[in-house]
Design a protein that fits this description.
With 324 residues, the protein is α+β, with helices and mostly antiparallel strands. It has three domains: 2-74 and 282-322, no CATH class; 76-116 and 192-249, no CATH class; 118-188. It contains six helices and 15 strands. It has helices at residues 2-14, 23-53, 65-73, 201-208, 285-299, 303-315; strands at residues 76-80, 93-95, 106-115, 118-123, 131-133, 149-152, 159-166, 170-173, 184-188, 193-198, 221-225, 228-232, 242-249, 258-262, 265-268. The longest helix has 31 residues, at 23-53. The radius of gyration is 25 Å and the shape is globular.
Length: 324
C-alpha cells in the first residue's frame, strides 16, 4: 500500500509542478500521517459507543463500532513483562513494554495479569526443537495441560511459550525457547490468573494502611512510574509468578525503500530489510495520501495543496473511522 500512496502523492504534487518529495521526507510525513489516523480510531470508537448508548447507532452491516474494533485489536498484543531485579534491587518492579524488553512500544496498557499458581519448576535434561525435555519430571502427574505457560528462567528477558502437547517427561511448545542444557524453567497454570488494578502512587499508601483495602495476591495492584510498574503486595514476586500485560502497541513506522535510480527517479524495492508498509487497513490509503499532501503543502509553502487535501479528506469517507 505504501507505494500506491506515494504514487498518489507524487501525482497530486506534479499536477501543477508544485515540487518533488524525497523518499526521506515522504517517510517522515507517512509516519506522522499513520499516527494521526491511528489516534483517530480511538476517538472514533468512543463516538460510536456514545452513539450506541444514545440508541442512534445501527446494527448488522450498519454497526460501525465492529470494524473499528477489529482495526484496534490488530494492534493489541500480550507479552510477559521483564523484572527489573536484573539491574535493580526491586524484585516486585517490572519494566513497561518497550523495544528492548518486549520488542514493541506500548501506546496504552489494557490490563495486567498475574499468574499466581506455579505447577512445576526444574531444569531441562535434553534439547530438541520446540520441546521441553526433563526426564526427572512427571508433567501429567503435576497437572500440566495444554494452554499452560512455560518460561525459560535462564534467559533474560524471559521467553514464554504455550504448551501444545503433554507427555510424562516432554512438552511440545509453540516456540523454541530451550537451546542449551541445563536451563531452568517453570510452568504456570494459565487458568489461575489475577488482574492487577492500577492505582496512583498517592493512593497506594492509603490502601496499604488498612488490612481491608491493602492489595493481596488474589487482588493485586500496581503503580506506574517512569518506564516501570511496581506490584503490591511487595512479596508478590516471591511466589514466584508470571506477569504479563495486554496493551495496544504503536504502529511500526512505515518506510518506502528503493535501491536504484531510473532516469533520476528512485525505483521502489520492497525487498530491502528495512522496508515497512503501513499497518492501517487498505481503505485508509486515500486518507493517508491526503494527510501526507497536507504536510507536503506546508513544506513547499503551497496552501492550495493543503486546502485541496483538507477539502478532499472532509468530503470523502473512505473508511469507517470517519463515518460518524
Amino acid at each position: 500500500m505504501i507505494n500506491s500512496v506515494r504514487n498518489t502523492v507524487i501525482a497530486i504534487l506534479n499536477k501543477n509542478n508544485y515540487g518533488y518529495i524525497s523518499p526521506s521526507d515522504f517517510n517522515l510525513y507517512a509516519a506522522n500521517a499513520q499516527m494521526e489516523l491511528y489516534e483517530e480510531y480511538f476517538s472514533s470508537y468512543n463516538k460510536t459507543i456514545s452513539s450506541e448508548n444514545a440508541r442512534s447507532s445501527g446494527t448488522d452491516y450498519a454497526d460501525i463500532s465492529k470494524p473499528i474494533m477489529e482495526v484496534l485489536e490488530s494492534f493489541m498484543v500480550t507479552n510477559p513483562l521483564t523484572n527489573t531485579s536484573v539491574t535493580t534491587n526491586l524484585s516486585n518492579t517490572y519494566y513497561l513494554p518497550s523495544l528492548i524488553t518486549t520488542g514493541d512500544e506500548e501506546y496504552t496498557i489494557n490490563k495486567v495479569l498475574c499468574y499466581s499458581k506455579i505447577l512445576y519448576g526444574g531444569v531441562n535434561t535434553g534439547v530438541n526443537p520446540f520441546q521441553l525435555i526433563d526426564v526427572f519430571a512427571d508433567f501429567i502427574l503435576e497437572g500440566v495441560s495444554v494452554g499452560d505457560i512455560v518460561t525459560n528462567t535462564s534467559v533474560a528477558p524471559m521467553v514464554t511459550a504455550i504448551v501444545t502437547a503433554v507427555s510424562t517427561s516432554t512438552l511440545t511448545l509453540s516456540a523454541d525457547i530451550f537451546t542449551l542444557t541445563p536451563e531452568s524453567y517453570r510452568i504456570v497454570d494459565v487458568s489461575v490468573q489475577n488482574e492487577a488494578e492500577k492505582v496512583s502512587v498517592g493512593k497506594i499508601s492509603l490502601l496499604n494502611m488498612s488490612p481491608i483495602t491493602s492489595p493481596s495476591v488474589n487482588y493485586p495492584a500496581y503503580t506506574q512510574k517512569g518506564d516501570s510498574i511496581t506490584f503490591y503486595p511487595s512479596s508478590i514476586i516471591n511466589l514466584p509468578l508470571q506477569v504479563e500485560a495486554t496493551y495496544f502497541r504503536y504502529p511500526k513506522e512505515p518506510k518506502w525503500t528503493f535501491t536504484s535510480l531510473a532516469n533520476g527517479e528512485p525505483v521502489f524495492n520492497q525487498s530491502q530489510p528495512d522496508y515497512q508498509d503501513f499497518e492501517l487497513p487498505f481503505e485508509d490509503g486515500y486518507k493517508l495520501a491526503m494527510k501526507i499532501c497536507q504536510y507536503c503543502g506546508i513544506s513547499i509553502r503551497e496552501m492550495e495543496v493543503v486546502q485541496y487535501a483538507m477539502a478532499q479528506e472532509q468530503h470523502e469517507q473512505p473508511s469507517f473511522s470517519m463515518q460518524q
